[in-house]
Amino acid sequence: MVGTRNISFDDTDTALVYSPGGFWNRGTWNASSTGQSGTLSTSNVLFDANITFTFPQAAVGFYYYGIRRARGASYGICVDCDQNALSFETIDAVNITDDGKNPPVVLYSVHFDSPGAHRIILRNQPDTRFPNNNSQITVDRFEIEVIDPNAPSLVTITASGSPNPTSSSTSTSSSPSANSSSNPNIGAIVGGVIGGLAAILLALSLWYCRWRSKRSVHRDTIGTEGFDPTPAVLPSQSLANPSSTMSEIPTTSTMNAANAKGRHIRGVIQSTHHGSGPSFGSSNWTMPTTSSGLQRAETAQRREIDAGAVNDIDHDTLPPEYDQVFRRASQSTSSSRPVRVPNLANTKP
Predict the structure, then answer these.
(1) Locations of Basic and acidic residues compositional bias (predicted)?
(2) For 268-285, what is each residue's pLDDT tens digit?
(3) Angle ∠(240,243,247) on CA atoms, nearest 5
(4) Strand 141-148 relative to strand 36-43: parallel, antiparallel, unpaired?
(5) Above 90 in pLDDT, residue 20?
């Protein structure tokens, strides 16, 4: 790939042919916004004011520089046109905000497939958008792009078979897009980064809320593990006949019979706990044969073992009250209290 360079032709250069000469004004421009200045050729004559420019050497590109106008600027340009059938392409050079203090800009450009010497015709045309079809044409300079093997590569030449002219409006609109495509879109990158961070934070928030809810459910489960809504029921034991669990208690007649034989008998009631209700075991009877044994029997205290209240398992049959059972036992024991028998052996006749 070979390099290219631009050759500039000022509006005062003899390579630019003005026709007719009396329709053109020569002046200067001063761009206070940039501090630049230069010469400028202008005309307000419609159709008849034109410029012809023929490339002095083979070139692959052409550039037309002028100043935009605020009150009408419509031009026609023709590249390599037939003198018998001219076909002009319109250039729109209007800028309604222009104050005349801006430097010249590219109003038209064209590139060719291969280097060649081309002819350019530029003219002023009526601008129907403004009163009296006013239009003012301005020319600052022409530039051609030539191949230079010693110059660095600036443009790429593509084979398309025909010239590819573009107007100033196309050139100015495509240039920013090319710059924007070559440079990364900082706004899109920043927006993507912020969006990604927001998505990550949202995912973390959802995960944290879910973790908290699972932890709360786990705590509730642990708190209710010790509670059994259906407690186990002990095997039922019949207490319909509590007297059947009671052992025989010595009666008064038995005690009297024992006293008649000169012996003192005291029954000691022992109770045992079977299942869930109180019961009395067999009575142990002692037959002391000496006075010391009788003394111990007299001083022995009756002992009762409280087995506690009976659990109410059978709801249909109620057992006797606790006080009723032990009150009868106490009354029976008191009625059979032993009577002290005098020792007849020590009694003198």
Answers:
(1) 299-318
(2) 444 444 444 444 444 444
(3) 145
(4) unpaired
(5) no
